[in-house]
DUF4364 family protein
Amino acid sequence: MSEKMVFKDSEPGSLSDIDEIKILICYLLNSAPQPLDREQMNYVFQVTGTVNYFSFCQALKELTDTGHVAEQDAEDGKRVFVLTQRGADTAKTLSGVLGRASRDKVVAAAAELLSRTKRDKGQKVAVDRVEDGYIVHLTVHDIGSDLLDMKLFAPDRMQADLLADQCSENTINLYKGIISILLNDRRGLAEIVEEMQPRRQE
């Protein structure tokens, strides 16, 4: 799911008190490993069902107006939000008024979102039509030379899309698996199989 604008109706257990929502925003920004933009914060709150979109917008505006949160430019040109000292003090002092479940959910969702964003920036998966089928092209970027540059053939679009999805979702294991096979590292292969085993049982 894209983190671009998401709208959801309020769910049971979602926050409706603006002051609590402001505390949750401060807690999220204080806990996240890097600043978040408006769309990222909105995605986190909507996907966890903790805050509806309009309440989030109101709370964020009030936090900005009162100097708890400030906007700044990120390297990619986006406008991101950071806590001021006042906002950090609020996060540390008042976060206890929030339910632990709500706090844990939003922090986990933010971590997953940022991890996925970082992963997507470090890799590229493309599906190209060729005369006799499709080519799935996976490139894993790194500082300097690429870590992996691989092409796979698929006879039809359905299989090509499946391969592309798996390349995107399992890039690390794919890379580790190739290295383990080439180095005859049976332990490394066993670790990959063990890690993937729970998925097969679900």
DSSP finds eight helices and six strands in the chain.
